[in-house]
Amino acid sequence: MKKLLIFMIITLLLFTACSKKTKDTHLAVDKDGKTVVERYGKLQIIGTNLCNQAGEPVQLRGMSSHGLQWYGKYANENVIKWLRDDWNCQLFRAALYLREGGYATNGALKPIMIKSIEACIKNGMYIIVDWHVLSDKDPLVYKTKAIEFFTEIAQKYGSYPNIIYEICNEPNGKDVTWNNNIKPYAEEVIDAIRQYDPDNIIIVGTSTWSQDVHIAAQNPITDQTNIMYTLHFYAGSHGEQFRKRASDALKSGLPIFVTEWGTTKASGDGGVFEKETLEWIRFLSANNISWANWSVNNKGEDSGILKYNADKTAQGGWQEQDLSTSGKLVRQILRNERK
Ligand code: DCB
């Protein structure tokens, strides 16, 4: 009887310890009011794991903005704090497009990026500074601009543990290869960042809209530390084949960060794929792969977290009825209400 009692007490203690740990790892702010950046500090890569300053593996989760040229109104302090406190976001990704009215022709987007960075620093969140290569396809097209931009960001903010650089969102096109375009571009941009920021995480996109981690794994960047590689997926278009790519890449030593994923088809529209989304979420959690969901907007596309034209003020504080089907699902996932 006594033995049974002791056994039960030990089991209970172990269970409480474990569940506490799982919960803590996903909190934007813990019960003592400590932010994720206060708890984790400077990030680092050990093996294929993203780790905190103490060397323990961590998984970071949060939301991506849509293109700042269209939805930069959401990249403000109130929305970012709301996403931290109500959505339990540990990170925010600010998507600086080059084309489609982006930074290549619109320098006024830089202050919006700066505002996002400063809001995340103030709120103890990580910020992914996303150089959103997309319709430009080849990252080499804007290499000089990228070097200039990232040098400035590294100089100003490289000493903050909050900063994560994503230097090349989704290179694509049949002539844009990892070996000839992306890797040479990445090496130069990384060198520029490292002059001022020796150790914050730098994430590199992969070919075919950041789907080809298996190709990057054959020829990774060497002589650099704290480098990760991007895999993007849309749950309605990409499934088991991509998860296998990710597992194989991890096995071969490639650290992976899913800087963008959606609950929809690859177009960002076409319905919400709940079952497929949850399958992905379980995979990412099991492998400690960090992620950002696409995206914060009220354009009316299915991957947007707000309903068409909902939320006119862009200050956060959204009600359930303002959220899209995707918004409701992703919020529940982030709040640890769905697994
Ligand atoms: C990526 C891009 C992202 C794009 C989403 C959804 O592109 F990184 O910028 O977002 O995935 O497609 C969409 C927005 C739309 C906007 C459009 C163009 O949601 O509102 O009009 O960007 O700015 C992908 C990802 C995968 C594939 C193709 C694209 N794919 N793509 O597998 O074919 O061509 O944009």
How would you describe what is shown here?
The chain has a single domain, classed as Glycosidases (TIM Barrel, Alpha-Beta Barrel), CATH 3.20.20.80. The longest helix has 24 residues. It is of the alpha/beta class and 339 residues long. The strands form two sheets. An eight-stranded parallel β-barrel has the order 3-4-5-6-7-8-10-11, surrounded by five helices. It has a two-stranded antiparallel sheet with strand order 1-2. Helices cover 38% and strands 16% of the residues. 2,4-dinitrophenyl-2-deoxy-2-fluoro-beta-D-cellobioside binds next to loops.
Q: In what order do the strands lie side by side in the largest sheet? A: 3-4-5-6-7-8-10-11
Total number of strands? 11
Specify the biggest β-sheet.
8 strands, parallel, barrel
Shape summary: globular
Radius of gyration based on Cα positions: 20 Å
By helix and strand content, what is the structural category? Answer: alpha/beta
The number of helices is 12
* Assembly state: single chain
The H/E string reads HHEEEHHEHEHEHEHHEEHEHEH
List the helices and strands and how they pair.
Layout: H1 2-25, H2 36-40, E1 44-46, E2 49-51, E3 61-67, H3 68-71, H4 77-85, E4 91-97, H5 110-122, E5 126-132, H6 143-157, E6 163-166, H7 178-194, E7 202-204, H8 207-210, H9 213-216, E8 227-230, E9 233-234, H10 240-251, E10 256-262, H11 274-286, E11 291-296, H12 325-334
Parallel strand pairs: 3-4, 3-11, 4-5, 5-6, 6-7, 7-8, 8-10, 9-10, 10-11
Antiparallel strand pairs: 1-2
Helix pairs in contact: 4-5, 6-7
